[in-house]
Amino acid sequence: MIRIDARNTIGPLAILEIGAHLERAAPGERLEVLCDDEAVLRDVRRIHPECEWSLETSRNGAGCAFVLRKPETAATQAATTTQPEPQPEPRSTAMSELDLSSIQPSSTADARGSACPGPLLEAKKGIGKVKVGEILEVYSNDSGTRTDIPAWAAKVGHEYLGLLPQDGYDKHFIRRKK
Fold it and tell me: Among all residues, which ones are annotated catalytic?
């Protein structure tokens, strides 16, 4: 079980942190959340209706503790009863730095100075601004982005083209596929 202490954290940041943990959690994994405001619970339930939840304790409006359980996907449930099907290769194309430097992106998301999960959230927001087949460029100086963005792109079905190291930050390139 993952424990998240969101006490003394403003509501929107607590919700972002909970969402980031939910994304990384394995199907069926539980998250215990401590927070000051029961409005966080209401918002999380509205944003993530697929999750099972239970209110563990309530402190008469002074805060709450609740448990979220990430749902098991149909593929996960089938894997426990049958042989798992081979997973498709991630949509990623290894491009040389020369190829990457010649790309003309359709949009750029600048997440420099932002720590996890900021660059990933900027990439999610930015991919919605480009058309299918176009390329989003994400600037980030957070080292976790080097693994987070390619994993996210593969998970949601976009094509991660690679990164181009710059002075103090990286440029990541993602082609929107759907």
Answer: 116
